[in-house]
Amino acid sequence: MCPRGARLIRGVGGYLERAELVCHCLLLETDRGLILVDTGLGTGDIDDPRGRLGAVFCAVTGPKLSRDETALAHVARLGFNRDDVRHIVPTHLDLDHAGGLSDFPAATVHIYDAEHAAAQLPRTIHERHRYRAAHWAHKPKWAVHSLDGERWYGFDAVRAVPGTDGDVLLVPLHGHTRGHCGVAVKTSAGWLLHAGDAYFFHGEMDPVAPRCTPGLAVFQRQVAFDDGARMRNQARLRALARDHASEVKVFCAHSPEELAELAARETASAPPARTRASALN
What we know:
alpha/beta, 6-stranded mixed sheet, Metallo-beta-lactamase, Chain A, 11 helices
């Protein structure tokens, strides 16, 4: 996504220059098939952006509408087909995270009950704009999970995605949306925690002097369902990143810096892990 206002959004460039925000997805290769964490925009969004995403979203965010950048295209380049993706775990169902659901119609979609309910029956103006029924018009196989589970690195009610032997976890991070979650993935090198939209700018995880650009700070406050919960979860993520840096790598959905760092690490090491995570843009 390339909205204008690079100086306000990324902290560099001109005020009218376009910024860059990625849609960071993960493809997990497991013994039980592929698991996709978030989907980004889908092929249907590329073919009919105004109909599926809306004119306002397209005008404000300036998305690069390329089929080559969809999760489906990345999966194909890795030598798989769409039906190899058995499960999808969205951090939430905002249009830029769930647009690719329809590209994997055979997958089971794991989501918290509060997020599923909000998407199916939006109750506020923000929810009516952020969720797009076209993204699940193919009637996916929903696996709706309640908010309960075990404790994990200071987070309560963390539960494993069924069938993953505890290697893929739903971590409650409500605030941005009603049922927003992080997705923790266990690899041979430690845990990856995809924090979705719990924060937007990499500087927000600085343990000493957390910072956010003005544009993203205002945007996050405006679109949050519960801004107080969002800020509390941000603080918990900072503490996790600070106190357990050698065990857990925290990253968000839209930071190009974090995507580049993790993609480079994946390319350099590519360990033969039981659950291997490949970063997708």
